[in-house]
Amino acid sequence: MDPSRHAIERWLQTRTRHWQSLEQKLQGQLDRPAESTEELMALVDGLRGIARDLSLAREVMPGNRIVAYLEQLYVRAHEVVHRPARRPGQDLKKIFTIDGPRIAREMRGTILATSALFLGCVLIGWLLVEVHPELAALFASAEMIDQTQQGTLWTEGLLNILPSSVLAIGIIANNLTVTFFAFALGTFFGLGTLYIISLNGLMLGGVFAFTGHYGLDGRLLDFILPHGVVELSVICLAGAAGVRLGEALMRPGSRTRVEAFQTAVSRAGTLLLVAAPFLVGAGLIEGYISPDPTYSRGGRLVIGLGYGLVFWLVVSGLAFRSRSGVDFALRLERSRGWCFSILIKQLTANKR
Amino acid sequence: MTDSLHLTTADGTDVALEVAGVGSRSYAFIVDWHIRILFVLAWLAVMLLAFGTGNSDSLFGWLRLDAARRAYLLLLPPALVYFLYHPVLEVLMHGRTPGKRLAGVRIVTTDGRTPGLGPLLIRNLLRLVDCLPVFYLVGLSVALATSRHVRIGDLAAGTLLVHEYKVSTESLQTAARLVLSRSLLPEDQALLLDLLERWGSLRREVRIDLGSRFLAKVGEAVPQDQVPGRGQGRPSPATLDKALLARLSELAGREPHRT
A125, A142, A305, B149: most buried, per Cβ within 10 A? Predict the structure, then answer.
């Protein structure tokens, strides 16, 4: 037999077993850290072996399926060995205490502009229905109009129709949908977001003007007060996030459009991750407190402003400033350094 | 020629992952969609059995749920499964879903890694845009127009779908034998392996056609000239099919019954 063929045959026979053994070792490795230094070192050795085999396979059998197989195995092994440490709790804490507030501060201008657009549309909607009451049909359903004309708000007696828990689930789902749409439609160069924000503003203003004609605007305000501050704030934040997507596509700067878009989505998505959970609380308030006539206007005001204050303290980062901000970031870095030094010590001890 | 994601790792090794096209992507989605629909139908059937009449003598009548609560119990789990199926399974299965697994594809980041929670949430959040106006028209159009066949959600998250080949021990051994025999060119070896692996799933006439064409391509005699029965009319398709498989397996150096 040709010696080179004999060598390849032997190499294939011995290495195939190694590849399959490494494949088994890689199973489930992405879900858990290596249990021992030996296990970790076996993976590192396996990766080095695969790199050598891949190089040889490319040389002696270019285009063969074994090359494709080894490439996939190499990518998997490389990912397992080089994956960053998993700290889901710390990462989430960092998002809420550092990343989210930082992004909110950077997006302050856009948030203010989007909020101004929303408030402007509220005013326009109010003026439109105030001057042309027949336009109320654009913003309210026939059923809502009928009930208002009979002197009752559609929000009154909601609890007689649906229990609070059921009402809250529906409201949370609806608010999350509006928020996500306001963000995602920014992909259409921001136009979709502007449409959602404007439409919601026009509807709110129009409905207030319409109920005002029948002297029910105070009762509508009472209904909106407890949950409205946070609900509308989240929608404005989502709108600002969507506007940023559109801006990245229109003015990518020195980066490519795709790169600018990815950065904008990642940053805006982080902010949304901080803001959107507050909709759960707003939904619960809207299901349990807003339709309940036993709450006075003062009580509603305190709940609405209080929850709104908590929301803005978290989003702006003021809620964590005393103990975190830079302090938290430093603590995080220190803990990382501590983990790293332990690893170095362990590896050095093993070498000895 | 297939599109590939070329990567150079930190230690200087170049690897290429084959990018999945719109076909594989759609196949995976359709399978996942059917799984969700089957769950919804099963849930509705169970609920109908449980609360069908709404009387106290029905299976869960003792719960005394009012109409609104029953409606939520009926609709909420299917809605949750419908909307959370992709994000939850993609996170738990490291960029795969049952449909993707069946289609042999998985999600990776543009640097070839398994995407984390953030990118997976983003790509699923932007389904809202990709599914517009109906039947994922926006997503499909973008996937057709982009070089890596990605939808807007993938563009935003920096992810793409790549093929994931499961190579069995037998395939690995056959590939090794083929290398050693050196009687076939590398691309013919790959073609032969593919053909043998798919042999069982192909219709007989397709198998005969592809097998004969392969043998003609590599300059081998098509077995219909050799099988018993020559001179007494054409061999039956079953006989030809068997003879083709035997010849192809012989070329690959494996036992015919094992394909």
Answer: A125
Q: What is the mean pLDDT of residues B38-52?
A: 86
Query: What pLDDT sits at residue A324?
Result: 46
Residue at A64: amino acid letter: N
Question: Is the pTM for the entire model greater than 0.80?
Answer: yes
Min Cα–Cα distance to chain B from A102, Å:
18
| pLDDT the model gives residue B259 | 40
Angstrom distance (rounded) from CA B76 to CA A342: 48
pLDDT one-digit tens code per residue, B182-224: 677 877 887 888 888 888 889 999 999 999 999 988 888 877 6
| Cβ within 8 Å, pair A180-B128 | yes
Does B121 sit within 8 Å of A265, measured CB to CB? no
Q: Judge if B136 and B177 occupy the same domain.
A: no
Residue B192 belongs to what domain range? 169-258
A1, A67, A265: best to mutate for the B interface, most B CBs within 10 A: A265
- When scoring A8, A15, A65 by the number of chain B Cβ atoms within 10 A, the one with the most, hence best to mutate, is A65
CB contact under 8 A, A65 and B190: yes
Contacting residues of B for A5, CB less than 8 Å apart: 180
Calculate the average pLDDT of chain A: 87
Residue A1 confidence (pLDDT) above 60: no
Rounded mean pLDDT of A307-320?
A: 94
Per the listing, tokens 């063969």 go with A64
Give me the residue label for tokens 């020195």: A254
b vs e for B174-212, b when ≥16 Cβ sit within 10 Å of the residue's Cβ? bbbebbbeeebebebbbbbbebbbebeeeeeeebbebbb
What pLDDT does A11 receive? 83
Q: What is the 3-state secondary structure (H, E, C) of A245-274?
A: HHHHHHCCCCCCHHHHHHHHHHHHHHHHHH
Question: To 10 degrees, what angle do helices A278-288 and A217-250 make?
Answer: 160
Residues 6+ positions from B19 with CB-CB distance below 8 Å = B2, B3, B4, B5, B148, B149, B160, B161, B162, B163
Q: Give the residue from B142, B163, B184 where a domain finishes.
A: B163
Same domain, B154 and B71: yes
Interface contact B126-A54, CB threshold 8 A: no
Question: Is it the case that residue B79 has pLDDT exceeding 80?
Answer: yes
B219 and B139 fall within a common domain: no
Preferred mutation among A1, A20, A32, A72 to probe B, highest tally of B CBs within 10 A = A72
Same domain membership, residue B253 and residue B144: no
CA neighbours within 13 Å on the CB side: how many for A319? 17
Number of domains in chain B: 2
Range of weakest confidence among A222-236, A278-292, B41-55, B93-107: B41-55
Is A199 within 8 Å of chain B by CB?
A: no
Last residue of a domain, one of B118, B139, B163: B163
Residue type, A291: P
Same domain, residue pair B23 and B119: yes
